[in-house]
Design a protein that fits this description.
Blueprint: E1 2-8, H1 10-13, H2 17-27, E2 34-37, E3 58-59, H3 65-80, E4 84-88, H4 91-95, H5 101-118, E5 123-128, H6 137-153, E6 160-164, H7 185-206
Parallel strand pairs: 1-2, 1-3, 1-4, 4-5, 5-6
Amino acid sequence: MVKVMLLGDAITEITCWRPLVWEQITSAGLAGSVDFVGSMNDLQPNCSRPQGFDPDHEGHSGWQAYDIARNNIAGWVQNTKPDIVQFMLGTNDVNIGHRNADSIIGSYTIMLNAMRAANPRVKVIVDKIIPTSWSDATIEAVNTAIPGWVQQQTTAESPVVIADCSRAAGFTNDMLRDDGVHPNSKGDQFIAGQIGPKLIQLIKDVS
């Protein structure tokens, strides 16, 4: 089984893109060989629940990359030893923690090192963060910094790739809920469309 950890904040936990990605995995004929892993298994009642859907994940509403990197990630990945980790984190670092882009990217590095300590061959998808309705400058700065970070960190044994969920890739304000932060159903479709193909490719690479 290919173990996949979907890691993040509320944009992972309380939205409906995870079952949409599962539908893509099923359509690719890979559902029988994929195990979503994590300490959480909730799914909003308004989300579709496709046949065989694996609800396990590591999305934590309100949590910051800064704290996950320093307090949680090592235990999570040691417990599950994922083959693939996909993550979107940083929105709460900006809105709650008032951290800058360098802090968020630094937290990504700590998390990546923990993932590799648990599995030296782990494959990682980092998402460019969806925009807020007010186009927060720090989120845009993180997204601008991600390609350089990926270039620095990726290796043949443990590749890091980008799923681009940013405004530059086409995420628009009408894909956000009224709070201007979380995706609505259109946003879920967009996120799933960016993450799914990258995840399927990595699942095939592991298999």
